[in-house]
Amino acid sequence: MPSTPTTKSQVQAYRFVLRRMQSALVRKDAVMLHDPMRTHSRATAVGVVISALGMLGFLVVGMLSPKGGGPESESIVIGEESGAIYVATGEPMKLIPTFNLASARLLMAAQQQREQQGGEGGLNFSGGDEAGKEPQVVSDGELENIPKGRLTGIPDGPQLLPTPEQRISDNWAVCDKIDINRRLEDPANTDKPTSSVLGGIRKLGVELGENQAILGHAENDKVYLIYHVPPDPNRGEANVVRSEVAMNDEDVTTTFNLSPSNQREISMGLLNAIPEAKPLQAPQIAGAGEPSQHLSDMNIGNVFLTRTAGGDPKYWVVLQNGIQEVNQAVADLVRAKYQQGTTGMPQKEAAETTNVPHVSELDVDEFPGQVPTVLVPERFPAACLGWRVQGEGENREGVFTMHVGAELPKKDDGSKLNPVKIGQPGAGGIKVDNFFIPQGRGAVVHAATSRDSFRSGPIYLISDRGVKYGIPDATTAKVLGLEQQSPAPDSIVRLIPDGASLNTQDVLRTFDSVEVTPGSGSFENNNGSAQGGS
Q: Contact 267/308 with Cβ under 8 angstroms?
C-alpha cells in the first residue's frame, strides 16, 4: 500500500507540539500564547556572531603584530618588565648588558667600526643605520635562556637622547640674582649673587635700555660698566659689552656719574659671558695742549661742537692731523681730562671745519653713545645676559642682549622655574649655582663663538640635569640619533659641567660594578645648594 506523503501543515503541527512540550518542561507553561524559546534562539545566534567577530579581530591583530620569537640579532633590546638595555649580537646570539641607550647605540657602532677596520676616536665609516634603529622591546622571559656578556658601556652617560620634538629652542641665558637685605646699611651688599644658566626660556625680562648701564663689582675685585652699544658689523653679535672701570679715575667716574653706592656684586659666570670692550678711560691724545695747526684758536685735545642744519649737535676732538667726530660721552670724557677747569663746551660754525681734515685716530667706537643712567641694584636685583638666533639660513646670527628685573625669568607659560642645583664647575673652572631647561627636554648644540662656527663648533648633548656630554663628530651624533645640531653660545655652554665623552672607544669598557671615587659627589647644605665634590 503506497505511503501518504506528509503535508506541510502536519510538519508545522508536529514542531508546534514539540515546542509546547519544551515550554511545559522548562517554563511550566503549555498554553504557548507567546513563543518563549524565540528569545533564547536569538540570544544564541547573537552570541555566535559576536564570538566570530572577536575571533576575527584577534586574527587580524595577530597578523599585524605577531608575537616575536625573541630578539633579532644585531639589534638593541629592552627588557619589557625590567627595562634593562642589551645589545643582541653574534652567532649564536649573545646579549651584552649596557648602562643606557647611548651606550647601546655606541657599542653597536663600535662593533661595526671594528668589522670595517675603522680608526680611533670618532667613527670612520658612513654606516650607523643599525645602531640608529629603534630598540626592540622583548619580554624578559624570552631573554632568560640567551647567554649574556659583561656589563659594557659608559656608566654616567645621558638618560635621554632627545628627539627633535624633545629639544629646546635656541634661547640661552646666564643670570645673577642678588639678595636684598634692607636691614643692612647697603641693602645690596651681599657676599655673592646666585648665578643660573637657563636654556629654552624666551622671556628674560626688560631689556637694558640704550641710556642705561649696570655697574658690577666682580669676584676678581675689578669693577665693570655694562652698557648697550649700537649695532656694528665689526663687532658681530654683541649689542651689550662690559668695560673695566678704575674707580679712582676721577675723569671717568665724574663724566659717567659712577658711584660705589650703585655697584652690585656680579658673578664671574655672568661677567665672562658678556663680550668685553676696552677699558673705559680717556683716550691718549698725542701732543695734547699744543696749538692746533688747523684751528688757530684751539689746542690739541680741545673739544667743540657744531650744529647741523636741523640743529642737532656734532662733537669734535682736535688732534694733530685734523679733527675727529665723537659722541657726546667721549667728548665729555676728553674735556674732563684735557680741559679741566673750563666751563661749557665751545661751539663753532660748521663752515669753519670745512677745510679741516677729518680723521679717525681715536679708538672710541665701543664707548657708550651717551652718559648712561646706572641702575640701582635694589630696584633691579636680577640681571640676565640672553642669547638668541635671529635671521634665516646663511643670514643667521647670534645676538646678545642684557635684561634686568626684580625677579629671575619664569617659564614661557608664566610658572616659576625649578632649577637643578649645580655642584661642579664648568670647563673654565667657573661654577654656577643653578641650571634649568624644561624637564624631559634636552639640547644638541654646536658651541659657537661666532656665526662662522654655527655648524663647526664642538658638539654637545646638554641634559636637563645640567650636564653636557661631548660628542666627537657629526657621524657619532648621527649614530646616537642626534642629528641637526643647533648653535649655542660657547661663553654660556662652557659654564655647564662636563659629563662623559660619548665616543666609540670609551664605550668598549666592561665592568663587574662601577667604583665610586672617594670624595666624588656632593652633599647638599641647609639651603639646598650642592657643596663639594668633583
A: no
